[in-house]
Specification:
With 234 residues, the chain is an alpha+beta fold. The chain has one domain (6-21, 33-230): Calycin beta-barrel core domain (Lipocalin, Beta Barrel). Helices cover 22% and strands 35% of the residues. The strands form 2 sheets. It has a 10-stranded antiparallel beta sheet with strand order 4-3-2-1-10-9-8-7-6-5. Strands 11-12 form a two-stranded antiparallel ribbon. A hairpin with a 5-residue loop joins strand 7 (159-165) and strand 8 (171-178). Helix 1 packs antiparallel against helix 3 (94-107) and helix 2 (55-78) runs antiparallel to helix 3 (94-107).
Length: 234
């Protein structure tokens, strides 16, 4: 993974300040088996919002999951079934939950992907964000330490998984799945933090597109909903 553009790095640093704490999340376990014939992710891709999850709806889903979790714990306490699970100081505070959702919005914001793939390498250039890069040999997972944190990537069957463990305790997972016809890519992104006892997951679907074409560009935001602009050819 390459370094973050400065504006994104500053924003992530500010959000991470809200999500401080030892996460305890571990890198993904090695795949059971690498697919015999690897799918080809290469090409130019643009996000398809009609098939993708809405960040605001995902945020509301997280809130409901936390409410159900709190209700179960409250019932267990009233029945003498145990103690309330606490994941860290300030866990599940409104600020921590919103910061996690906002971080998910930032890391899933890229509308365009430019993917190149060879026998032993896959590189995902993401518009306005850091690239995801993975080298793989003999089906083995690759782990390295970088300025961003601990990076692990590799094939999980027919899927490609990227993991990033940040020094401040936040972990990010990107799972790439190619559709049956090779015209869609689903990117499932999951963020975990010790300050929120439930992960935030957001699925984006990308479709092949012609980079030379112009049209309407839209994005989903946590605060403003869907925002669209008209893109002009240079």
């Amino acid at each position: 993974m390459n370094c973050l553009p400065r504006p994104i790095a500053l924003c992530i640093a500010a959000l991470c300040a809200v999500l401080l704490g030892g996460c305890g999340s571990q890198p993904p376990k090695p795949a059971l088996a690498r697919a015999a014939v690897l799918p080809d992710f290469s090409g130019a891709w643009e996000v398809d919002y009609s098939q993708s999850e809405n960040v605001r709806e995902a945020y509301d889903t997280l809130i409901r999951a936390l409410q159900r979790q709190a209700e179960r714990q409250s019932r267990n306490m009233s029945q003498g079934g145990g103690t309330l699970a606490v994941t860290g100081a300030g866990a599940n505070s409104g600020a921590s939950i919103y910061a996690l959702a906002r971080m998910a919005e930032i890391v899933t914001e890229p509308q365009l992907l430019d993917i190149t793939q060879t026998e032993n390498r896959l590189n995902v250039k993401r518009e306005g964000s850091f690239a995801l890069d993975c080298e793989f040999f003999d089906g083995k997972w690759r782990t390295r330490e970088s300025a961003l944190g601990t990076e692990t990537c590799g094939w999980d069957g027919h899927q490609v998984l990227f993991y990033l463990g940040l020094p401040d305790g936040l972990s990010i997972y990107h799972r790439f799945t190619l559709g049956p016809e090779g015209e869609r890519i689903k990117v499932a992104t999951t963020l975990r933090s010790s300050q929120v006892s439930w992960p935030f997951t957001l699925d984006r679907v990308y479709r092949r597109y012609d980079p030379a074409a112009s049209g309407i560009r839209c994005k989903q935001t946590l605060s403003k909903g869907r925002v669209c602009t008209t893109e002009q050819l240079p």
